[in-house]
Amino acid sequence: MSLLSVKNLQVTFNTEAGLVEAVRGVSFELGRERLGIVGESGSGKTMTGRAVLRLIRPPGRIMADAMTFDGQDLMAASEAQMRALRGRRIAMVMQDPKFSLNPVMRVGAQLMEGLRQRDHVSRAVAYAKAVAALDAVQIRDVDRVMEAYPHELSGGMGQRVMIAMMLIPNPDLLIADEPTSALDVTVQAEVLSILDALVRDRGMGLIFISHDLRLVARFCDRVLVMYKGRIVEEIAAKDLLHARHPYTQGLLNCLPRIGGTRGPLPGLDRNAEWAM
Fold this sequence. Notes:
Elements: E1 4-15, E2 18-30, E3 34-38, H1 45-52, E4 60-63, E5 66-69, E6 72-73, H2 79-85, E7 90-93, H3 97-100, H4 107-119, H5 123-136, H6 142-147, H7 155-167, E8 173-177, H8 185-202, E9 205-210, H9 213-219, E10 222-227, E11 230-236, H10 246-253
Parallel strand pairs: 3-9, 3-10, 7-8, 8-9
Antiparallel strand pairs: 1-2, 1-4, 1-5, 5-6, 10-11
């Protein structure tokens, strides 16, 4: 049984210049697996992830023939029902911890805030759960990090804190939006190892949004390739480097290669039919 089912998802924005279609007719199924979504900036990757959580606000509008999570109709759910799902059963790690963590609150207070307000547990219990979450994402010197402010952490440490915050309620689905884009390759590998263990050991479903095709090919099980709000190709991750769609091939050809020529990278010749 699918954990998440999305059929004909559309996200539109009414602007002074007219209607902008950010996501157009996206459909996919997700089990307890690692699903990658790739494409250029502006292709609709993040909007798709946010739409699942119903985080698109006016003048944005979400429409879908069906969008269900573990049998629950997300399109028919009230805002109170969505608040009960967000964080507790569906969590989202945003792209940059600098903009997601409160700069004037200590890390520990931010990790415990949801537990205290949502689950009404004591401070001691909340503290223990926060420490356990930091341990799960391989943070050393946990007591120091709990007392630190976000600006005192490195980019990799901040990203781990964000992942720990989302994991405290033990969600069934994690949406990770470019979780490694600002990290060096060593820290990137560590974060991916953490996410991989969470999917494998906890049985979570993972939507991994990225622009890095090589990384997605190594890490994910399946891949959706998006162009101008549409899915132009769905392919097994192991076959991504041998994709057949001209757009996916164009993205792959634009990647620099070690030992390749020193000339300019090839451009992407676009076809109007890809957006139809």
